[in-house]
Amino acid sequence: MDAENIGELETLVRKEADGRRIVLDLRDLTLVDQDAVSFLKRCEEDNITLKNCPAYIREWITRGRKIREQ
Length: 70
Hints:
Helices cover 59% and strands 9% of the residues. The chain is mostly helical and 70 residues long. It has 3 helices and 2 strands.
């Protein structure tokens, strides 16, 4: 997942979000860049569930939150 994919995904999420619960299944996600990690962190902040999030991505999201809180 990179910046190019994020734009498309953000558009889809906005169109579907109208009061609906959104779940992103990340089972097949193997490669992300920093923009993707930031996007996924924002998704969680917007109450979007990240299902099957790979451990290394979860760690990066968590680190990003800790840095932001400091």
